[in-house]
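Sequence design from tokenized structure. All designs in this work follow the same two-part layout: the structure record, then the generated sequence. An example of the structure record is given first.
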């Protein structure tokens, strides 16, 4: 009696390895299909989101997810790391070239863990750190009480000025000289203007502080010269790789050579265990894409689109925080027309336009309600929309918000969104 190879595998219970997702798990397969359709039919204006290439998706879905590789290239705690070392070395080299950095660690699983690793490397519990106030545009991991960064450190926050809503560097300097923080953290999640990294370095030098620049949002702009780079100034630069950089959902840390050893030890074994090798492979692919002239055009168009959209939204009567934008994002004060951020987000979502509610500086609403929505152009620029479409988007937003989301307006705007999306499909 002889068994076919297939029958043998079935008898051994191994045939599941080769079965497709539709067959193995129709519920999840269907949710993925539904999400694909949602992304295709949605104008994605969440500033921190993007649409990655099929090449990045393929690397993320690769067999590297099976691999354990604690340690670093050439110094692993596991066998079989040959191909993994190739991938991680390529990712490191590309990251260094892309940012002009002395040292890169490509293992952080996320932006938050990148930041945690830098703190773990350089700070002790009880040290003072200085970061931008969350409600003025900073990030949770820059010292907010609900985050690890606000629990173990003494936190001093700097702000934007009330009159022009720009970072108050004079206040930053005065606070730095008064509190002598061990580290000054700059970079933001909701700030639409150029950040003066050189000035912050000068402040850090005067107060004897380390400087960390978190460019999670603007990394793509930085590598293409659309925003000044912090790399020459900051001791550490952290970023996500999935926002303007348009790679997998993950993190990256760059630093001066003098901190390389301490940093690598902080990422592993300090904060993380095994690296996500499939995600590192996808980061390498994204870095390669980011080194092309097309990526530079893409980033330049993001900024053009943001300026055009901010102007067009302002033309419909909404106040724009700080009066406009220099980067990929702007804050719209929807409460300037009597709508809360929360309501605006829901009304827009019902017409397939996604944004997120966001507090604006000196907000009078609670964070879960907020007076603003944050609007960004990285994702719509990826799918090919340009200035003429930005005007159309602003009109759609104003139409449905001015109508407070009434049914007729919602249907009309949803139709307009669908027409735009059909003209610019994402994954064919
Ligand atoms: C998005 C963001 C992060 C965190 O990234 P996660 O990958 O979500 O952990 C950190 N810092 C800033 C400034 C961000 O905008």
């Amino acid at each position: 009696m002889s068994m076919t190879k297939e029958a043998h595998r079935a008898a051994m219970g191994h045939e599941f390895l080769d079965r497709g997702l539709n067959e193995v798990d129709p519920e999840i397969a269907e949710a993925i299909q539904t999400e694909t359709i949602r992304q295709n039919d949605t104008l994605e204006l969440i500033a921190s989101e993007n649409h990655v290439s099929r090449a990045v998706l393929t690397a993320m879905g690769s067999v590297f997810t099976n691999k354990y590789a604690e340690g670093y290239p050439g110094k692993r705690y596991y066998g079989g790391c040959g191909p993994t070392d190739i991938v991680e070395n390529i990712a490191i080299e590309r990251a260094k070239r892309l940012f002009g950095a002395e040292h890169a660690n490509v293992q952080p699983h996320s932006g938050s863990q990148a930041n945690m690793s830098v703190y773990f490397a350089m700070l002790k519990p009880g040290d003072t750190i200085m970061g931008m106030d969350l409600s003025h545009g900073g990030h949770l991991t820059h010292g907010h009480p609900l985050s690890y960064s606000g629990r173990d450190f003494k936190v001093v926050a700097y702000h934007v000025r009330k009159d022009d809503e720009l970072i108050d560097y004079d206040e930053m300097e005065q606070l730095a000289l008064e509190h002598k923080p061990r580290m000054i953290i700059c970079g933001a999640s909701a700030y639409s203007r150029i950040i003066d990294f050189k000035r912050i370095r000068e402040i850090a030098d005067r107060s004897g502080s380390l400087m960390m620049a978190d460019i999670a949002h603007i990394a793509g702009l930085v590598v293409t010269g659309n925003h000044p780079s912090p790399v020459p100034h900051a001791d550490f630069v952290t970023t996500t790789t999935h926002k303007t950089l348009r790679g997998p959902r993950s993190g990256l840390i760059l630093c001066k050579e003098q901190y390389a050893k301490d940093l690598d030890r902080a990422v592993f074994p300090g904060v993380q265990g095994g690296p996500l090798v499939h995600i590192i492979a996808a980061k390498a692919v994204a870095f390669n894409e980011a080194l092309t002239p097309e990526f530079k055009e893409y980033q330049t168009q993001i900024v053009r689109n943001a300026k055009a959209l901010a102007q067009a939204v302002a033309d419909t009567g909404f106040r724009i925080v700080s009066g406009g934008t220099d980067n990929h994002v702007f804050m719209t004060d929807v409460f300037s027309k009597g709508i809360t951020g929360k309501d605006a987000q829901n009304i827009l979502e019902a017409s397939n336009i996604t944004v997120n509610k966001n507090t604006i500086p000196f907000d009078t609403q609670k964070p879960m309600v907020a007076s603003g929505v944050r609007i960004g152009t990285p994702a719509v620029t990826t799918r090919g929309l340009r200035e003429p479409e930005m005007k159309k988007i602003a009109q759609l937003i104003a139409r449905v918000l001015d109508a407070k989301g009434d049914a007729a307006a919602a249907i009309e705007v949803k139709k307009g969104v669908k027409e735009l999306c059909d003209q610019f499909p994402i994954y064919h």
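The longest helix spans residues 293-315. We note this feature because it recurs in several other targets discussed in the main text.
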